[in-house]
Amino acid sequence: MGAVIEIGTGSLRADDVVAVARDGAPVGLSAAAQAAIVESRARVDALAASPVPAYGISTGFGALATKHIPPERRTALQRSLIRSHAAGSGPEVEREVVRALMLLRLRTLATGRTGIAPATADALVGLLNAGLTPVVPEYGSLGCSGDLAPLAAVALALMGEGSVRNRAGDLVLAADALPAAGIPPVVLAEKEGLALINGTDGMLGMLVLACADLLSLVRHADLAAALSVEALLGTDRVFAADLQALRPHPGQAEAAANLRMLLAGSPIVASHAGPDDPRVQDAYSLRCAPQVAGAVRDTLAHAVTVAERELAAAVDNPVVLADGRVESNGNFHGAPVGYVLDFLAIAVADLASISERRTDRLLDVHRSHGLPPFLAADPGVDSGYMIAQYTAAGIVSELKRLAVPASVDSIPSSGMQEDHVSMGWHAGRKLRRAVDGLRRVLAIEILTAARGLDLRAPLTPAPGTGAVVAALRERVPGPGPDRHLSPDLDAAVEAVASGELLAAAQNVVGPLR
Predict the structure, then answer these.
(1) What positions does the cross-link 5-imidazolinone (Ala-Gly) connect (predicted)?
(2) How far, in Å, CA of 261 to CA of 472, rounded?
(3) 310 and 293 within one domain
(4) Fewest beta carbons less than 10 Å away: which of 24, 61, 266, 343?
(5) Other Cβ atoms within 10 Å of 176 Cβ, number
(6) What's the pTM?
(7) Which of 199, 216, 241 is the last residue of a domain?
(8) Is 137 helix (H, G, I), strand (E, B) or coil?
(9) Active site positions, annotated
(10) 29 close to 112: Cβ distance less than 8 angstroms
(11) What is the mean pLDDT of each run of 10 residues along the chain (513 residues)?
(12) Are 250 and 284 a contacting pair, CB within 8 Å?
């Protein structure tokens, strides 16, 4: 494990979320956070001793908020809250999502706005550092009041109940795992149950992880487009900076700049350039590549901005304010996060769609400008990459379904007290599937275009694209008779996921934007 990531009272970096979620980086609370937690807990203790009702401290929850709870029943109230709200169902959520959720809840606790007890915050730190990941079922959150059921599953583990996965991935009872890790199970006092479950941490965690993936995949999309433009004997003139400047979207400019860098010095492009080239213009899937990939970048930039704002937020209800007031609020509503999760799913679907169209063009003998049908070694005997396009098309069709917004589908709950919900958790779940689909579609285009470039020999590709083909050939052989294709597809997907193809290009042309 690397250096300890210190959780303070302020914002958290997205890179730190990824490091904890995916790489198991250890965490700790800053001295300022520890002091803020102690101070806000003292305020909650004072309210608990007061005869004046305070929501979640001396009352029930949701539609039962008007019911007063006597002091001797409040520990039972908090325990019952967690047990009843840990009502998820379905398959387990991925480890990285649960760890992101845990970290983001810890970050809100560290602000001193929740009234959590110091021992409970310390137990959450211990759970993360011990590599113990509570089992969180996929279904159960409406995204308001936050991700209740998923967060309740984590709180249940802190109480020593339910199940967790240890660092090795084994399923263990929390009652056994916590003592083995030296973590005392917590007994929740007033307000603590709410403090542990009333946040948008699950959907935010999925947003941060998706943004990290897409920051890489948009550059892979440019890489794939450059390979296809070259393999299809397309022109690079349309990517000129002065043409792109006529429509000053920043993402478009970045995508076009990447295409110019990748195609610079291409003997293949030079072979058909000039007045003798009979084609006036390329198809949209080639010519408009920077416009589509650029719009995805601009959408992603907006999503990153929303994520950064949320990473600076203290989401709880009620919340302990700086002047000591404890007030109910609506900051737990997931609309800001849900909207951008849906927005990204739309952009992902379209980026995959234009990629698949280029793949299909590479395989069509009537549109590929001299390449063999389906890039087959012996067309008729061999089918080449015919069915790889089917796979890409099937994924794109699924991505279009996943692009249907979840955030417009509010369902009332809690006896109509919670009569409008965000469905942000569901938006996050489908975006994760969409990002995986995009990665696979881009990998298929890269695999197909690389084969097309090999078949253009003796002409050679540009230094940048040539480096990508060479890196891919470390995993996947070049043209030849048909062989079992699925392993080749999987190898290409892994090459995209690892970043090695992008690194190969950047080692030649410099950093892509």
Answers:
(1) 144-146
(2) 19
(3) yes
(4) 24
(5) 13
(6) 0.95
(7) 199
(8) strand
(9) 55
(10) no
(11) 89 97 98 96 88 76 72 87 95 98 97 96 98 96 88 98 97 98 96 92 98 98 98 96 97 98 96 76 96 98 98 91 87 93 98 98 96 96 97 98 93 76 92 98 98 97 98 97 97 98 98 96
(12) no
